Amino acid sequence: MSAGFDLRGLGVSLRGRPVFSDVTLSVRPGEMVGLIGPNGAGKTSLMRAALGLIPCEGESSLAGLSPAARAKTVAWMPQAREIAWPVPVERLVALGRLPYLPARGGLPEADRAHVDRALARLDLQGLRHRASSRLSGGEQARALIARALAQDTPVLMADEPIAGLDPAHQISAMRIFRDLAGEGRAVMVSLHDLGLAARHCTRLILMAGGGVMADGPPGEVLSPGRMARAFGVSVWHQETEHGPVFQPLEVVE
Ligand SMILES: Nc1ncnc2c1ncn2[C@@H]1O[C@H](COP(=O)(O)OP(=O)(O)OP(=O)(O)O)[C@@H](O)[C@H]1O
């Protein structure tokens, strides 16, 4: 598996307005990175720029890859996830194998095994023949995570992948992302749930004020002063026998 990805001096302006500038960071295999920050801080823009999907200043090791190489290097789950076509769930998940398939013919046995594993991991076997457009919002989100897993890439980037999932599926999805990192992949997910970020990420990158405000272990990044400056909230944070518990409390002036 390749070695994560690197961003150097990355900056994005949209319609002439700078969103963020001068972001330099590397994400290594084994890291489960939570990208956090208030609405509009530039989390989506950072990931899209890193992938080469929008114009930007600076360099990204992913953006320079050919489309074919990039599809085998990074699985991308965008925030918008309406599934308009009524394809069966298993076919939607099988689309994750597209970068590996010959131009003609069906799905080879080995690729089918990837699809079956992804369906099982996301608890979707019972829905595999259902039309994807007839899933609930949370089920669609799980099907799209399964598609990204089937792609079996060394890097995974996901924009708010657990938004709209129920608590059990949020926790399972975070565990899956963490396990994928544990297998040696580089994982970056944007999140608004700071409690889940604190519990499941090995590293947090906090975007605010036009750049990266903090980057490090969750316990350091989620300091009360920084949470007040970045999000305008007071917080409660405790290391417990169940792991870190982090809860935003009140809006502060
Ligand atoms: N197509 C666009 N044209 C102009 N401005 C845009 C465009 N897309 C996003 N923006 C602006 O860029 C800024 C960053 O947006 P971005 O979606 O990257 O933030 P975010 O941190 O992902 O936000 P959220 O948490 O709300 O999803 C925002 O101020 C947004 O209004």
From TrEMBL:
InterPro entries: AAA+_ATPase, ABC_transporter-like_ATP-bd, ABC_transporter-like_CS, P-loop_NTPase. Residues 5-234 form the ABC transporter domain. The keyword DNA damage does not apply. Pfam families: ABC_tran. The keyword ATP-binding applies. One of its GO terms (molecular function) is ATP binding. Keywords: ATP-binding, Nucleotide-binding, Translocase, Transport. PANTHER family: HEMIN IMPORT ATP-BINDING PROTEIN HMUV. Part of the ABC transporter complex HmuTUV involved in hemin import. Responsible for energy coupling to the transport system. This is ABC transporter ATP-binding protein.
